[in-house]
Design goal:
Blueprint lengths: L4 H8 L3 H8 L6 H14 L5 H8 L4 E6 L5 H16 L3 E6 L4 H13 L4 E4 L10 H5 L4 E4 L9 E5 L1 H14 L5 E6 L3 H16 L9 E4 L3 H12 L7 E4 L2 H14 L8 E5 L13 E4 L2 H16 L9 E4 L2 E3 L9
Pfam family, one: Peripla_BP_3
EC number: 5.1.1.1
InterPro entries: HTH_LacI, LacI/GalR-like_sensor, Lambda_DNA-bd_dom_sf, Peripla_BP_I
């Protein structure tokens, strides 16, 4: 028979009120906390989260909306978010929007119906109107990786514009003048990266032919198609910036199929030091995002809102990236 709160009372000699206060997240005397925790372990007592939620109006569950769960960057971020939430005593309910804004809105309603305490959002697009329902329900939201053009929410991201500015400059420092980019232009992160590329090219006085900008979505297919088109140009680029991890994998496959080689024929620099980059040869130059740190900060920001510790205006935290050196850039000097 499952242990009850009365069994804990009998084991500890404490009042039901004190035990209930502890179980519902309240503060009790340190010596009482030790007695209760020992009794819980000895009796294998399991907290009824549904019942506790009725009392505290908290479910200890955080919703996570992702734009595409197949994206390896998203998968890695979910790993770090799950670890951090577990440390804080929270569970995670994940909804995949499959890069569909209509589904994203439906997923939000699903999470709200499950009474999640807060929501972490990897948004599909650049508009935040769909989150008005969360605001109305007073459910805190933190954006991760992507912010909006038209709405202000707490957000944790990297400085994407500066990151790709530096990537482009790395090619320029190695005397490349014909530099192309394969990136997204349908969401905030991709657009910021394209701006960084343009900033560096313009500052160096280098031409940006229209056919050197392969813009679409951050996907394997777009990377593959974009690289194929670049390599078929009569005046092909000597260096290519691959705007995210999936795009990078697609671009490398197209390069391998072409019979050309890196860096002898085309120099490459990509984004994100995820598992496949460890086995690719040559070793790639990479822009590396501090994914674990981003997730820790996103969880901390959200729980501050959930627990009423932060009630001010939306806060945006932008982390710097680092560079992993490789062998994929040829010096043309």
């Amino acid at each position: 028979m499952a242990a009850t709160i009365r069994d804990i009372k009998k084991r500890t000699g404490l009042s039901l009120a004190t035990i209930s206060k502890y179980l519902n997240g309240g503060n009790v005397l340190p010596e009482n906390r030790i007695l209760i925790e020992e009794a819980i372990n000895e009796l294998h007592y399991e907290v009824n989260e549904l019942a506790r939620g009725l009392v505290t109006h908290k479910t200890k569950t955080i919703g996570v909306l992702v734009y595409d769960i197949q994206c390896l960057f998203v998968g890695s971020m979910l790993h770090y978010l799950g670890m951090e939430l577990h440390k804080k005593g929270y569970g995670m309910l994940i909804c995949d929007s499959c890069n569909d804004e209509k589904l994203q809105k439906e997923n939000l309603q699903f999470l709200l119906s499950r009474k999640v305490d807060g929501i972490l959002v990897f948004a599909v697009g650049m508009h935040g109107k769909f989150l008005h329902a969360a605001k109305k329900a007073n459910v805190p939201v933190v954006l991760v990786d992507r912010s909006f053009q038209d709405e202000e929410y707490d957000c944790v991201e990297v400085d994407n514009r500066t990151a790709i500015y530096r990537a482009t400059n790395k090619l320029i420092e190695n005397h490349h003048k014909k530099i192309a980019v394969i990136a997204s232009n349908i969401e905030y992160t991709g657009r910021e990266r394209v701006k960084g590329y343009s900033d560096a090219m313009n500052q160096a006085g280098l031409e940006i032919p229209k056919e050197y900008c392969k813009l679409g979505g951050h996907s394997f297919e777009h990377g593959y198609r974009g690289m194929k088109e670049l390599l078929e140009l009569e005046d092909r680029p000597t260096g290519v910036i691959l705007g995210n991890y999936n795009t990078m994998l697609g671009g490398i496959m197209a390069l391998n199929e072409s019979g050309l080689s890196c860096p002898q024929d085309v120099s490459l620099i990509g984004v994100d030091n995820l598992p496949m980059t460890q086995v690719l040869r040559p070793k790639l130059w990479l822009i590396v995002q501090p994914m674990e740190t981003m997730c820790e900060k996103a969880v901390a920001m959200l729980l501050e809102r959930v627990n009423g510790e932060q009630n001010g205006m939306p806060v945006k935290i932008s982390f710097s990236t680092s560079v992993r050196e490789g062998d994929s850039i040829r010096d043309l000097g």
